[in-house]
Each structure stands twice: as structure tokens, then as C-alpha cells.
């Protein structure tokens, strides 16, 4: 009965066939020996490494599966060939645009212009939006002054600003950068305000008990506690920045990825259109990865999935 009961208990504890008497605080290995501290740390690291490779493998499998489905749909001509070229045809269009160019502009030139525009507008939105959000969260007067303009401008789509910006600033780079800034800055302001208002009051109370002054409270409590929400806003904002850029380049540009997609669409060059869309998606994803890396460096205490 004793052995049978031990077997049942071991099954309930997740170690089939192993009685509780053989379990210990360490990690057991075959033969009843417990893992040392170094071995346990190594085991955890290997397990984490295997999990990361498993996630990467699943991502690769999903992408390969999507390509296979795309190829099947294109080969079966579910859509006309001009509307849905094969992945190979899109790759050929990308190589042709990257090497020989399209309408006297290479893919490299389009990427360079678009990336600079997005980076300038997005950085401007962060540099302006975070301080404005902090001021609005700390001062009721500032909040009452700025919030009406914020709430009125936030629902307006970026395309509505383009004619006005073109009239005011012409067809140069400034209206495109301003459009990205105007479209992204509300996200940064709102995320910053939310970060400040979600700070637990106990953090301020503990800091005051330790003798912290107003400036120390801001530097050591408010700012670090707000950073996670700021980075969340940045990750959302980078996608909005690319949306605003493509909107601007569709109307008021002679180079850039948005311009490339629009010009290729008017001439039914669907392969170039899809290639441009994929490049925009990849660049946006790489920028978000850069934000995640910066987040890990500046706020390592936050959990990352």
C-alpha cells in the first residue's frame, strides 16, 4: 500500500513512477543524483534557448506556409495573373527595381527617403510628445489648455492635412515630416499621460519617507515609472508613422516607397506594388525591433515576452 500510494502521489506531482521520497529540492537526474547549482542554471539556459528556437521555427513555418498558399492561389489563377503574381514574379520585380530602378528611381533611393522621413517625424513626435504628456499629467492648467486641441485633432485622418500642408509648406520634405509628426504625437502624449496616472501612490509615499524632493521624485519615480507606457506608445506610433508617410507620398512626392507603390499601381505593375508593400512592412518591423532593443536597455526591470 505504501509503494502504491507513493506511486499515485508521484503521478500527481508530475513525476511518473517516481515516489516522493526520491524527490528533493534539487533537480533530479537518472540514478537519483541531484543537479548542482551550475547544472541547474545551465539546464534552465538550454531550456530557454530551445524555447526561443522553437518560436523562431514556428515563425518560419508560418511564413513558408503563407508562401505555399500564395503560390497555390496564383497557380490556380483564383485571381487574374495581373492581380496576383506568383512569389517568384514578385521577387523578380523586387530585384529589377532594386538594380535597374523604376521610373528612374531605384528601390534603395525610395527606401532611403522614406526611412529618413519616418525617422525625422517619429523622433520629433517622441521629443515633443513625451514632455507635453508629462506636463499635462502634472498640471491641470496645461491639461485644460492642450486637451481640447488634442481631442479635436486626434480623430482627423492624416490625409485631411496634406492639402493644407502643401499650400503652407510646398512639396518639399517639411510637409511630409510634419504629417508624420502630427499623426504620431497624439499617441505619445496619451501614452505618457496614462503612464503617469497609473503610477501607484505608494511609490511616491515611500520616496517622500526617504526624504526625496520634488526633482528627485520626478527623476527617480515619475520618469522611470512612465517609461514602460512611453515605449508602448512608441511601438504603436511607429506603425502610424509609416501609415502617415505612405499617405503623404501617395499625393505629394516624387520618390519614396509610397510614391513607388502608387505609380506602379497606376500602370498595373502588381509585382512592384506587392514588393513595395513587403518592404514597407519589413522596415516597420525592423524599426519596432529597434524600439524593443532600446526598451530592454533603458527599462530592463520590465518583463519582456
Provide a descriptive summary of the structure in words.
The protein is mainly alpha-helical and 305 residues long. It has two domains: 2-75, no CATH class; 87-298, Orthogonal Bundle (MetI-like fold), CATH 1.10.3720.10. Helices cover 74% and strands 0% of the residues. The protein has helices at residues 2-12, 37-75, 87-99, 107-138, 140-153, 162-169, 174-197, 201-209, 214-251, 257-266, 270-298. The longest helix has 39 residues, at 37-75. It is globular and about 70 Å long. Residues 1-29 have low confidence and may be disordered.
Could you provide a short overview of the structure?
The protein is mainly α and 305 residues long. It has eleven helices and no strands.
Distance between the termini: 46 Å
> What's the CATH class label of the largest domain?
Mainly Alpha
User: How many beta-strand elements?
Assistant: 0
How much is the radius of gyration in Å?
Answer: 27 Å
What structural category arises from helix and sheet content? Answer: mainly alpha
Helix content: over 70%
Question: How many domains make up the 3D coordinates?
Answer: 2
Kindly report the average pLDDT value.
82
Under CATH, the homologous superfamily of the largest domain reads: MetI-like
Shape: globular
Specify the CATH architecture of the largest domain.
Orthogonal Bundle
Q: Treating each run of at least 4 consecutive H or I residues as one helix, how many helices?
A: 11
